[in-house]
Amino acid sequence: MQFRTLEQLAAQCTERSMTLGHYMLEQQSTESGRSPEQEFATMSAYYDIMREAVERGLTEDTTSRSGLTGRDAQRVMAFGAEQELSLGPAAGEAMAYALAVSEVNASMGRIIATPTAGSCGIIPGVFLSCQKRFGWSDEQMVYGLFAAGAIGYVIANNAFVSGAEGGCQAEVGSAIGMAAGALTELRGGTPAQAVHAVGLALKNSLGLICDPVGGLVEIPCIIRNGFGAVTALAAADMALAGVRSVIPSDEVIGVMLEVGSSMPEKHRETAQGGLAQTPTGRKIMRNLRRKPDPEES
């Protein structure tokens, strides 16, 4: 890739009058040796899987094998149909879609890791709900995924996207930043505004620990995806309104690296701290250990 930082990415896109999505497609094609058409087709197939996951999460039984989670997306949608959500219908739908995809993941369904399975609901939640709301074409959405990919590339190469390395800020936080920056571009924002959206989003998730109850990607992961989608919408709106990340986004990524590196091991996907070690969390763990695997019975 011809860029290593978000500042470089925005500068190169501005200089060439390209969007982040178009530029990333070009860069990906050059690096892989595959044609732009081939790369676009692959990303388009990924978007189809995201759409399928949202639909499944809203219409099918998503009860996880553990029995701990499932159908919360459907509960949110049903509540929103009965009375007005405090968030409003648009943000509420994004939240429900994000929950839906995360529940599909927990129930062993097919998802796209964006950037990880633990944060798989945020980008589909934001993208599919906004596509429905603004009437964007699938082609626009696929370029949006390339924009999100460019942002994720910078984060992964300057910090981390793994909860085991940097806590949930590295998974859910990165996904929020990727979704916010891409949405800013989809709504007509400049490359610089898209980059500001990333910084605004990441600052709001710094220090978020990874504390999966029972070691499963369910509690609190699924709920964090729902909240993450709402945060991404807010960050994009701030950036489009002209709000800037006073601390440059690349420096915010550097702070994420610093915070994650100093985070205690018990708060990095080990289920040895945080919510996983509350009295209820420990009780759930004990019950899971006693529960036979349904596939073995």
UniProtKB/TrEMBL annotation:
Pathway membership, UniProt: Carbohydrate biosynthesis; gluconeogenesis
Residue span of region Disordered: 263-297
GO BP field: gluconeogenesis
GO terms, molecular function: 4 iron, 4 sulfur cluster binding; L-serine ammonia-lyase activity; metal ion binding
Class of this enzyme: lyase
Signal peptide location: none
Start and end residues of each Serine dehydratase-like alpha subunit domain: 16-276
Lipid metabolism keyword on record: no
Enzyme Commission (EC) number: 4.3.1.17
Reactions mediated catalytically: L-serine = pyruvate + NH4(+)
Keyword terms, alphabetized: 4Fe-4S, Gluconeogenesis, Iron, Iron-sulfur, Lyase, Metal-binding
Cofactor requirements of the protein: [4Fe-4S] cluster
Membership in a protein family: Belongs to the iron-sulfur dependent L-serine dehydratase family.
Protein name (Swiss-Prot/TrEMBL): L-serine dehydratase
